[in-house]
């Protein structure tokens, strides 16, 4: 059985679900229904983490000192070192809020920025903002799943939203276990700087520095890399991904190309950090961590590792379909009987 990526691609070319019963004409055949639920708690946590990162970036750009941006419950809290800069900080942090208009609540913002004593600033998602964010996440997740199970748009698979946090997937002619693995892969690509202030072993023994994380190194089993959490470049700005071969090492490789915005970010990252290592991370695992030798202005590159051709093909198709905006929890799987005649 080929990988699901290849199998589904071939189904798409035929114009109908590949099933012998359907090809013979009328009669019955079986299909599979998978029902997923979006992990809403993770949606909220990721949004708070994004707000936290953006708040740190804004205060750094404004040269406003603070004691850290921390997540507390449903809030991001920042304590300024100099309370006299409160107005300046609040004014800049309010730019994080996005205005929206709905028939029910009218014009509103998705975030509120408030103040407290001793230089405290509180950033909190509004109820309307949370609802809008969850709806947007569901919509994006449906599109990602649809592109994964039916990349050509003609395989006969059905992907629909259910309620406020559910997704239903119906298909036939492909092994359900492989489809589940294909759907569940986050496919989140990030480029992160390596923290060279201490070794991963020291971080494990003494504690991970604030703003860092330890991630497993694919090339070195049982070893980790100490990285800055903030992604310098994200797969959100990926324009193309393809399976190819490294012309120097003659190994299966993943070719990538960023959009203009992503290319500019990659150029800035490499220009400002020559001589430093940076990690290419896919779904929380370090694929490689090369040292930056020169600026990369083109936004193109190769990721080479211990990959099989099938793995590279799968990764490329997953990256082209986009990263899942939130984890999906499988809540039901059942077999159904399908009847009818194949449409020509």
Strand content: 25-35%
Neighbour order of strands in the largest sheet: 8-9-1-19
Please report the total strand number as a whole number.
19
- Structurally, the number of domains stands at 2
Q: Concise description?
A:
The protein is of the alpha+beta class and 344 residues long. The protein contains 9 helices and 19 strands.
Structure description:
The protein is α+β, with helices and mostly antiparallel strands and 344 residues long. It has two domains: 31-183, no CATH class; 189-321, Gyrase A, domain 2, CATH 3.30.1360.200. Helices cover 32% and strands 33% of the residues. It has helices at residues 4-14, 20-23, 40-61, 86-93, 127-149, 176-184, 200-206, 260-272, 309-321; strands spanning 28-38, 66-72, 75-80, 99-102, 106-109, 111-115, 120-125, 158-162, 166-171, 189-193, 212-216, 224-228, 233-234, 238-245, 252-258, 278-282, 285-288, 300-304, 328-339. A hairpin with a 7-residue loop joins strand 11 and strand 12. The radius of gyration is 23 Å and the shape is globular.
């Amino acid at each position: 059985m080929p990988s699901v990526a290849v199998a589904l691609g071939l189904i798409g070319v035929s114009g109908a679900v590949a099933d012998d019963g359907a090809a013979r004409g009328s009669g019955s055949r079986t299909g599979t229904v998978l029902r997923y639920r979006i992990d809403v708690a993770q949606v909220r946590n990721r949004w708070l983490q994004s707000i936290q990162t953006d708040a740190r970036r804004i205060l750094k750009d404004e040269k406003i000192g603070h004691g850290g941006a921390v997540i507390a419950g449903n809030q991001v809290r920042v304590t300024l070192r100099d309370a006299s800069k409160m107005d300046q900080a609040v004014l800049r942090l309010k730019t994080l809020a996005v205005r929206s208009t709905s028939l029910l609540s009218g014009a509103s913002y998705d975030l509120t920025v408030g103040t407290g004593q001793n230089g405290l600033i509180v950033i909190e998602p509004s109820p309307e903002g949370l609802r809008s964010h969850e709806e947007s996440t569901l919509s994006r997740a449906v599109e990602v799943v649809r592109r994964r199970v039916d990349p050509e748009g003609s395989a006969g698979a059905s992907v629909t939203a259910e309620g406020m946090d559910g997704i239903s997937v119906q298909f036939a002619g492909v092994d359900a276990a492989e489809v589940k693995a294909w759907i569940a892969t986050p496919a989140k690509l990030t480029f992160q700087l390596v923290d060279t202030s201490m070794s991963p072993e020291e971080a494990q023994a003494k504690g991970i520095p604030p703003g860092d994380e330890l991630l497993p190194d694919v090339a070195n089993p049982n070893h980790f890399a100490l990285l800055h959490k903030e992604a310098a470049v994200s797969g959100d700005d990926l324009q193309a991904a393809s399976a190819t071969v490294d012309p120097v090492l003659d190994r299966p490789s993943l070719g990538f190309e960023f959009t203009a915005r992503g290319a500019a970010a990659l150029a800035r990252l490499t220009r400002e950090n020559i001589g430093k290592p940076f990690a290419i991370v896919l779904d929380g695992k370090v694929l490689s961590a090369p040292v930056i030798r020169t600026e990369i202005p083109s936004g193109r590159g190769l990721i080479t590792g211990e990959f099989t051709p099938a793995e590279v093909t799968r990764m490329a198709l997953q990256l082209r379909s986009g990263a899942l905006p939130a984890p999906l929890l499988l809540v039901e799987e059942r077999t159904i009987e399908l009847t009818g005649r194949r449409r020509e």
